[in-house]
Amino acid sequence: MHQAALLGGLIRDAQHYGWKVAHPVPHDWRKMAEAIQNHVKSLNWGHRVQLQDRKVKYFNFKASFVDKHTVCGVLKGGKILLSADHIVIATGGRPKYPMHVEGALEYGITSDDIFWLKESPGKTLVVGASYVALECAGFLSGMGLDTTVMMRSIPLRGFDQEMSALVTEYMASHGTRFLRGCIPWQVRRLPSGCLQVTWEDRASGREDTGTFDTVLWAIGRVPATRSLNLEKAGVNTNPDSQKILVNSREATSVPHIYAIGDVAEGRPELTPTAVMAGKLLARRLFGQSSDLMEYDNVPTTVFTPLEYGCVGLSEEAAVARYGQEHIEVYHAYYKPLEFTVAERDASQCYIKMVCLREPPQLVLGLHFLGPNAGEVTQGFALGIKCGASYAQMMRTVGIHPTCAEEVAKLRVSKRSGLDPTVTGC
Amino acid sequence: MIFSKSYCPHSTRVKELFSSLGVGYNILELDQIDDGATVQEVLSEITNQRTVPNIFVNKVHMGGCDRTLQHGLGGTCVNVGCIPKKLMHQAALLGQALHDSRKFGWEYNQQVKHNWETMIEAIQNYIGSLNWGYRLSLRENAVTYVNSYGEFVEHHKIKATNRKGQETYYTAAKFVIATGERPRYLGSQGDKEYCITSDDLFSLPYCPGKTLVVGASYVALECAGFLAGIGLDVTVMVRSILLRGFDQEMAEKVGSYMKQHGVKFLRKFVPVMIQQLEKGSPGKLKVVAKSTEGPETIEEIYNTVLLAIGRDSCTRKIGLEKIGVKINEKSGKIPVNDVEQTNVPYVYAIGDILEGKPELTPVAIQAGKLLARRLFGGRLEKCDYINVPTTVFTPLEYGCCGLSEEKAIEVYKKENLEVYHTLFWPLEWTVAGRDNNTCYAKIICNRLDNDRVIGLHILGPNAGEVTQGFAAAMKCGLTKQLLDGTIGIHPTCGEIFTTLEITKSSGLDITQKGC
């Protein structure tokens, strides 16, 4: 859906490059949704075929523990019991509903629903400040829908806050409305069919209302552990997060029961980490490998309208760990070449590299805000994995013209106070 | 005094230049007088120049279009290289994006047409702003900018001749030569008069129409690619292989994609004659080409013939022989040591004219910056030319860093290498209904050195953005194990390198199935 939104922007760009397109170009949600849903279903099918090819038995039922070696569930024919030597829990998480908000469950939807809507969500209120909230709000805006984001406090908690501010700044200057410091407490349906939301502005204490076609909750996810009857197996969870406690071998408190993915405590909630953890686990259990999963310096990308790719420490985390005096931050504002002719605003296109100050200046974190941030960040994450120093990064010759080369051209440090704007071709 | 032909685009540009400078000129249009051909012959004898425009200033022969029309500041890259190329490539990609967007729900009915003039104007304006930016930059840094043609006359001394023919002399303790290259012509009949090169394409005031691109360089393929992408009928005439010097498996895939998307290829042919059938903007040209393998000849009519058969260093007419700077007589390139010094100690050289170094903008810039720091900044750092990454911006982009598979086999021997490879389907291509199992990535690992990655190749969208970071990683000693131990960013194309499992030697199927 992010791609659909980006394409809308590209259609606008195309005019500047000589393409004669009549404006504005409307977007048909239904057509897009059908295409996306079909693709997802084809992936479902693909996975099913793969399981079959590898002779993995697939049982489609909701399971829970009976004891540490046995799970049970209900199928059409009746109850079923399965026992095994090893059990892997990968039940993931589900979006949270704000249960204290009246009407939240009846009238609001979550990311579980948005991708499966057959009709356009229309004027939407997205509640939350997570990457899910911002990504959804981003692509909805990009499709031309009236979109508002309501945040309780800061955007992208846990991410570098300077970068997060630029992410939301870009969205705000490109049509997304932000209601900061607001908490909703009621959602009700009006006779017209629209939803009326009432919220409190924390700063002023004032109450406000707004009307929307759709309210999308993106306030966090809960691990799917409640219905597993984990106590029957003796598997321990973190009482606050409800996630399953695991060690470095992905094992729970019960040696032969493992947990991977979003349901496991202390792991980045990312697909590739879950996939890799699973692969390595399988190799340790049945292969000859003893390789453990490495969870540090995991790169990620937030697919907001202007994408944010990052790996390693945020500036705040680096300062907290090493002290301001011991870190050096190199940064640059740059303009993607493709933005020039398209007359796009590049004010938030920004890169920063957080390094140790002492030579050779080990790179602690890289943050890139711009188009194709995921593609740019991936290779540099490898560099950091190889223990890259600032000096080594700078010895790398750039590929021209790209945005990524600007990472290898970072010269201005924050400490110097010099203008970090890139000039020249 | 300009000896010109009324239909010649180069003559037109020169006339425009003089007009814009407020310089008066007289014109003789050789195609409009009876003895025009004779005049052209005489001019050729006097000036050694066969073509028009042939320009004299105060009775002194200045030359033709090339020598008179200097580009703005910034060199080839800014004016007639990377920058306009990438922008035109972007225009073509946008055409594809327009097509894709319908599948993603964007609604417009018409067949979308492309307007060449709109694109050229936008691109030229941007280039102009860069020229201006550099001019300001020089001024801000108190660099004197002399817009003249320089050549050595004796040690430590050059003669500078400006547009009006005035000569000035300059001396200096040190010199840096960065004169770059210019596109080569065929040396066959009609080439200089009727063919254009990349020097002309990016500011061509009219749409080139049905185009024949002669050459198999990245310049040829990139130009052919974007011209086809904006809807033109394009043919590429190739003497032998594509992208000489690049990994040939990747080169063939690049060509194959272009072919699938409407670019015609005439392999193993060379043009022998170009004849003008009709004047115009564009006109009509007849091209006769001969097979390299037999007596077969073919003839075809095109609006434009674009030559992209290589570039020649601008080192032969700058007086280097007067001060004894050695150049490679055959290629014109200048050999330098590892601090970019020529055989004459006070003369340095950087950029495309260097022998044995990659002809890339960032290499030239890096070399120049480090040279300046060594000469005046007390620094010692030398330019690192190893594992310089690059990207070919063809319709399907090709990014690479390190060795081609052929070169790796040559240097390390096949049994000491392991090549991991895979096809992949970018997520954005799925809904758009674009080819699956076309995009391709491979790494070449040295088994004798911890499976060190010595070559990385990717064919896919945003190849440049993907490759850059991996180049940095290779600089830090990337190995297969490190790749395997790194988590991918999902969903991207770049993550493919973190999940490579299948080796070429296994012979296993590499087609993609799941997410």
UniProtKB/TrEMBL annotation, chain A:
Residues 298-409 form the Pyridine nucleotide-disulphide oxidoreductase dimerisation domain. It holds the Pfam family Pyr_redox_dim. This is thioredoxin-disulfide reductase (NADPH). The gene is TXNRD2. Residues 28-278 form the FAD/NAD(P)-binding domain. Its EC number is 1.8.1.9. GO terms for cellular component: cytosol; mitochondrion. InterPro entries: FAD/NAD-bd_sf, FAD/NAD-binding_dom, FAD/NAD-linked_Rdtase_dimer_sf, GSHR/TRXR-like, Pyr_nucl-diS_OxRdtase_dimer, Thioredoxin/glutathione_Rdtase. SUPFAM superfamilies: FAD/NAD(P)-binding domain (SSF51905), FAD/NAD-linked reductases, dimerisation (C-terminal) domain (SSF55424). Keywords: Disulfide bond, FAD, Flavoprotein, NADP, Oxidoreductase, Redox-active center, Selenocysteine. It is an enzyme of class 1 (oxidoreductase). Its cofactor is FAD. Belongs to the class-I pyridine nucleotide-disulfide oxidoreductase family. One of its GO terms (biological process) is cell redox homeostasis. One of its GO terms (molecular function) is flavin adenine dinucleotide binding.
TrEMBL record, chain B:
The lineage of its organism: Eukaryota, Metazoa, Chordata, Craniata, Vertebrata. Its cofactor is FAD. Its main location: cytoplasm. The keyword ATP-binding does not apply. Its EC number is 1.8.1.9. GO terms for biological process: cell differentiation; cell redox homeostasis; cellular response to oxidative stress; glutathione metabolic process; spermatogenesis. Keywords: Cytoplasm, Developmental protein, Differentiation, Disulfide bond, Electron transport, Endoplasmic reticulum, FAD, Flavoprotein, Methylation, Microsome, NADP, Nucleus, Oxidoreductase, Phosphoprotein, Redox-active center, Selenocysteine, Spermatogenesis, Transport. Homodimer. One of its GO terms (cellular component) is mitochondrion. PROSITE patterns: GLUTAREDOXIN_2 (PS51354), PYRIDINE_REDOX_1 (PS00076). This is Thioredoxin reductase 3. Signal peptide: none annotated. The gene is TXNRD3. GO terms for molecular function: flavin adenine dinucleotide binding; glutathione-disulfide reductase (NADPH) activity; thioredoxin-disulfide reductase (NADPH) activity. It holds the Pfam family Glutaredoxin. The keyword tRNA processing does not apply. It comes from the Eukaryota. Displays thioredoxin reductase, glutaredoxin and glutathione reductase activities. Catalyzes disulfide bond isomerization. Promotes disulfide bond formation between GPX4 and various sperm proteins and may play a role in sperm maturation by promoting formation of sperm structural components. It is found in: Cytoplasm; Microsome; Nucleus. Gene3D superfamilies: 3.30.390.30, FAD/NAD(P)-binding domain (3.50.50.60).
